[in-house]
Amino acid sequence: MTTTTLAVTIAIIPSVLALLRLAQRDPKRLRLLGRRRDAAGTRERRALAALALGPGLVLAVCGLWPALLIWMGLLLAAGWCLAQGFAGAAPAVARKP
Amino acid sequence: MISLPQRETRSLLAIHGWSAVFLGLLLYTVIVTGVASVFGDEIGDWANPIEQPSAQRFPAGLGNALQQFADSVAPELRESFFAFPRSGGRIYAQFHRDEKDANGRPTERGVVVDIDPRTLQMSNRREGDEDAMNDDDTVNALPDFFVNLHVRLHVPEPWGLMLTGVLGLAMLVAAVSGFLLHRHLIRELFTLRRRKKLLSARDAHVVAGSWNLVFSFVLAFTGSFFSFATSFGVPVLAMVAFNGDQQAAFETFVGNPPVNDPRPAPMANLDAMIVDATRRAHAETFFVSVEHWGRADARATISMLPAEGEVFGTTYVYDGPSGAYQYEKPPLGRVPSFGGNLFSLMAPLHFGNFAGVLSKAAWFALGFAAAYVALSGMRLWTQRRIDQPAWRPLAQAVNGIGYGLPLALIVASATYFVARALDADLQPAMMRMFLITLGACLLASWLVRDTARVAQTLLILTGAMLLGLPALRLLCGGPTWAPMFATAQFAVPALDTVLVIGGLACLAGAYRTATRMRRAPQTLALERVTE
Predict the structure, then answer these.
(1) B37 and B366 Cβ atoms separated by less than 8 Å
(2) Which of A4, B41, B90, B319 is the least crowded, having the fewest Cβ atoms under 10 Å away?
(3) Distance, in angstroms, between A76 CA and closest chain B CA?
(4) Residue B437: predicted pLDDT
(5) ipTM of this model?
(6) Structural contact between residues B146 and B35, judged by C-beta atoms closer than 8 angstroms
């Protein structure tokens, strides 16, 4: 395993997990499902966002530029997949906001 | 949150939508073929593997083979030389001189061969002008078809490049206007409402666009740069600063300023230079070029792949007759500069090839999302106006090309295998079948009013073709997996597997659409009750 692959693997796991939690507890999404109470508070969302983006900052500070670009690409693709995945799990007809 | 006055929002929406209406279908074509081209090298290795590959991109002993090739070429054609590996690792080597055609446009005349990386035997020698050199070039036919469609839509130069450059600018406009239009970019990153069909489509477009915004901007900018740099930038710079001499302009920016010493002098062996460059860069050789082969002023330029942990590779210059190392060449001009570094970032950011399959996979995923954004945006714009007769043809074209283009590309790939087995001209055959399939898809979407039904049928056909492509490859004489694993040519089993997975995904998507269509009346009834 090359340094780049290793760095990407180590960085992407916490980022995607944080993104997953953000998506699960996203206030706007949950409000549309009528589950406003399950939504994350501002502090929790900020902490999760920091956890999602932090590994990228570490890669940048370490000068691991290829790993940073790949991490960013994978994170963006994962974010889209998560959004699509949660839409699939949502009921076909949701309650009005 | 970006808050704009209502009037400006309306204007931006008009710009966003109309730019897509006029150029969206071509842009979609460029994006889809670009997504395929990310894995162009792997597609080449899959379509045309070799019996015995070499472990190195430029194998030892190649220098002697290239010298033999040089000896067989007329001295006046040895002005420029370059070589790089293509499908299966076969080395493409070309000698040429720059000339001007009857209209005063720059052209080339030269000799080309393919060199087997294991036996170092030359084959498929082509001589003459650019057309003659490109005729019967079958080694890289399939990836070349995708790349030419992506780079210039198969439109002759310079118009094709200019067209794709404009499409890149349209993508930039769409990305920027989309960013400004979407007021709650961060807040709605996970919001996909599924209340009504149209609203859900709007959310799907916006969410995909939001996640893809940075990448779309980068791709559009770098793509436009590559298209305009050679079709427009260099000619204009040459006109302004080089008295119209494009060759001189090009050499000043990216080449080595020529020194003129036409005395004959034998060329040093390139193998030693490649070994030295590999030792310096800690990376494999990407590309080799030589100016004035066989003259006292000969100079070899060796470009390297990015070393581990780097985004772009280095380039070294060697003295031709002695083979002595001269200097490390900056990407632009002779002195390292910030502009030069920015210039060298363009290629890795556009191609995503800086860290092998991993970076390509990330670029492929984001490119796929960009294609989805383009198609969903066009569908959204046209579906909203489908009741107006003037918009119906465009809505049908969006449906036909949106779902027909991937099918047409797969049919072109299938044609490649059949035409190769029949020893037919590959590029014309692929283009013919590509256009026929795309035309048939357009006709189907024109004749059948039910757009969902057409989309579903095209998706089923795409899935079936994807599933059938590995079998067709085998039927047309392609190798089985066992010799490919034995010779470490993993592109063949990997792409076969990806095609099967892609085919199954298409069929699953079509099945899901069919289920949704069957449930649609119930959903509508439920909506009426809840509202």
Answers:
(1) no
(2) B319
(3) 6
(4) 97
(5) 0.88
(6) no
Task: Give Cα B113 to chain centroid, integer Å.
Answer: 23
- Residues of chain B in contact with residue A22, where contact means CB-CB under 8 angstroms, are 190
Q: Note whether A87 contacts B: Cβ–Cβ < 8 A.
A: yes
pLDDT tens column, B205-241: 888 999 999 999 999 999 999 888 877 776 776 777 6
- In chain B, the residue whose alpha carbon lies closest to the alpha carbon of A87 is B192
**Distance (Å) from the C-alpha of residue B379 to the closest C-alpha of chain A?**
18
CB proximity list for B497: less than 8 A, separation 6 or greater: none
- The answer to whether A72 faces chain B, any CB pair under 8 Å, is yes
Please tell me what DSSP assigns to residue B264.
B
Chains A, B: CB contacts under 8 A, how many? 112
User: Rounded to the nearest 5°, which phi and psi values hold at B315?
Assistant: -130, 130
Give the mean model confidence (pLDDT) for residues B112-119. Answer: 94
Helix-helix angle B491-530:B40-47, to 10 degrees:
120
Confidence of residue B524 (pLDDT cuts 50, 70, 90): very low
Q: How far is CA B452 from the centre of its chain?
A: 30
Tens of pLDDT along chain A (97 residues) come to: 788 999 999 999 999 999 999 998 888 888 877 787 878 888 999 999 999 999 999 999 999 999 999 999 999 999 999 988 887 655 554 444 4
How far, in Å, CA of B455 to CA of B375, rounded?
12
Residue located via tokens 């699939």? A88
How far is B20 from B24, CA to CA, in rounded Å? 4
Q: Do B308 and A4 touch (CB under 8 A)?
A: yes
Residues B355 and B310 sit within 8 Å (Cβ to Cβ): no
For residue B108, give the H/E element and its range.
strand B106-115
Q: What is the pLDDT of residues B321-336, one digit of tens each?
A: 999 999 998 888 778 8
Residue B296 predicted with pLDDT over 90: yes
Tell me the residues of chain A between 3 and 42 that have a Cβ less than 8 Å away from chain B: 3-5, 8, 22-23, 26, 28-29, 32
DSSP state of B230: I
List residues bridging with B109 in a β-sheet.
Answer: B97, B129
CA distances from A35 to A29, A40, A48, B57 (A): 9, 11, 20, 57
